[in-house]
Structure to design on (209 residues):
């Protein structure tokens, strides 16, 4: 591993190191993928990594290529003490709004962990149900904290896989390519062909008659 990458990872782990020094060992990183798309679920990833975890390339999922994310996903999940995802579909998003759906996904992810964390580091969210577990909300946490970045990769890879599966059901929309985000091509197809069951009605109301 190059020295520059070692320095970057050490910087990402500063918050965790402070907690480890306080004898807090089970630190759970949490982040989501899919708050902005026009279609598909929002997915929240939660992961507890061992203190000595030092996986090369872990970063905010948006800064990592799809191919690299898949490899990192395997490394992270193989090394994790525990990991889980919370998936909230488009119907529920329309029903309770995307912010509340994301918070619900966080709770589901926490409930799915086989090991209860001592503390949670979460990207930006506040006023959340963490099942009584203390949490620290970090603005742009996926770019600042190792465990949150790892969670962002779990969430993103999980969601991308879901969207590729849906692409086989509704190939006309190109979900495998844009993963449900509002690209010009995606919006054009919605306007021409109308939405499918995967589309968030509250997100696409301005694109359909």
């Amino acid at each position: 591993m190059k020295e520059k990458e070692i320095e970057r990872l050490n910087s990402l782990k500063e918050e965790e190191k402070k907690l480890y020094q306080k004898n807090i060992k089970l630190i759970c990183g949490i982040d989501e993928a899919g708050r902005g798309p026009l279609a598909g679920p929002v997915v929240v990833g939660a992961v507890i990594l061992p203190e000595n975890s030092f996986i090369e390339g872990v970063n905010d999922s948006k800064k990592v290529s799809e191919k690299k994310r898949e490899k990192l996903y395997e490394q992270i999940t193989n090394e994790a003490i525990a990991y889980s995802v919370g998936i909230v579909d488009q119907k529920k998003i329309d029903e309770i709004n995307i912010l509340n759906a994301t918070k619900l996904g966080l709770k589901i992810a926490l409930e799915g962990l086989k090991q209860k964390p001592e503390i949670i580091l979460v990207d930006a969210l506040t006023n959340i149900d963490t099942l009584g577990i203390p949490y620290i909300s970090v603005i742009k946490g996926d770019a600042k904290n190792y465990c949150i970045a790892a969670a962002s990769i779990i969430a993103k890879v999980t969601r991308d896989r879901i969207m590729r599966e849906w692409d086989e059901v509704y190939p006309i929309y190109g979900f495998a390519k844009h993963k449900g985000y509002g690209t010009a091509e995606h919006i054009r197809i919605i306007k021409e062909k109308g939405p499918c069951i995967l589309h968030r009605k509250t997100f696409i109301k301005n694109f359909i008659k």
User: Anything to note?
Assistant: The radius of gyration is 18 Å. The domain at 3-159 is CATH 3.30.420.10 (Nucleotidyltransferase; domain 5).
